[in-house]
Protein: YjeO family protein
Amino acid sequence: MTWKVFTLGFLWAIISLFWIVFCSVQDKEWWIGYGDINNICDLMRSIANDDIRDVGIFFSLPVFFPAIYAIFIKKKRYWFIYIITLLISGYWLWQFFIRYKLCLW
Structure:
């Protein structure tokens, strides 16, 4: 692994995390911490069905294009790319799916 792969992977991870957060923020998520709303579950219960995750999911999918390009097209097999892809995928799943599924318990 070269320093270029490390630098590009690190930049890709940082930009991806910011883009995922930007695409996954609910409209009134800034209400958390005020009044009776303490977490995302309370927020989802208190507002009308204003879920825009499907649009955010669509716009955040290009985050995975660099990994697809590097792994499948260029056939680069660096462990660092796999780790970064796994971390970004986990964070993407958390922001769009897992944190909402935990509200059902």
The mean pLDDT is 85. The chain is about 65% helix and 0% strand. Helices lie at 3-24, 40-46, 53-60, 65-73, 79-101.
